[in-house]
Protein: IGF like family member 1
Amino acid sequence: MTPRCCILALSTALCIISLLGAQGAPVSPTGARLMLCQAHSRCGGKLYDPQQHCCYDDAVVPLSRTQKCGNCTFRVCFEQCCPWSLKPQETFVVKVRGQGCSLGPSLDDRVCSSVS
Structure:
């Protein structure tokens, strides 16, 4: 290589290094909760982090959200409230989310009476 080519190659390398160094370290936007590398899900057109929220009735809700089911309270992200009419008075059963309400009772179910 001629000295002129070496100087040109060296100055090009220094220019590229200075341009890369001028950009600084990658910075995430302030307040960004969802990063592209994290697992995410959709709920009613919105993205959410399934480790912190769930989709309930097309709304993003925190995993800790609870709701009444007769005289019981159930966790909407993990359980569901099912009507159960085997008793004379109106009763409900809290089942694990994903189980069909028409399935027979299981050991995980909680029977809840109606609130008058």
Q: What stands out?
A: The chain is about 15% helix and 35% strand. The radius of gyration is 29 Å.
